[in-house]
Amino acid sequence: MSLLKKTIDGITPVDVSLFSKAQAHLNNLTKPLSSLGRLEEFARRYVAITGNLQPVLRKKTIFTFAGDHGVADEGVSAFPKEVTAQMVLNFLRGGAGINVLARHSGAEVVVVDIGVAHDFGDAPGLAHRKVVRGTANIRKGPAMTRDEAVRCLETGITLAKEYATEGAIFGTGEMGIANTTPSAAIITALTGSSPVDMTGRGTGIDDNALANKITVIEDAIRVNRPDIKDPVDVLAKLGGAEIGGIAGLILGAASSRIPVVVDGFISTAGAVIASELAPCVKDYIFASHLSVEKGHTAMLNRLEARPFLDLDLRLGEGTGAAMGIWLVEAGVKIYNEMATFSDAGVSEKNA
Amino acid sequence: MSLLKKTIDGITPVDVSLFSKAQAHLNNLTKPLSSLGRLEEFARRYVAITGNLQPVLRKKTIFTFAGDHGVADEGVSAFPKEVTAQMVLNFLRGGAGINVLARHSGAEVVVVDIGVAHDFGDAPGLAHRKVVRGTANIRKGPAMTRDEAVRCLETGITLAKEYATEGAIFGTGEMGIANTTPSAAIITALTGSSPVDMTGRGTGIDDNALANKITVIEDAIRVNRPDIKDPVDVLAKLGGAEIGGIAGLILGAASSRIPVVVDGFISTAGAVIASELAPCVKDYIFASHLSVEKGHTAMLNRLEARPFLDLDLRLGEGTGAAMGIWLVEAGVKIYNEMATFSDAGVSEKNA
Question: Could you say which residues from 211 to 270 on chain B have a Cβ atom under 8 Å away from some Cβ of chain A?
Answer without folding.
Answer: none
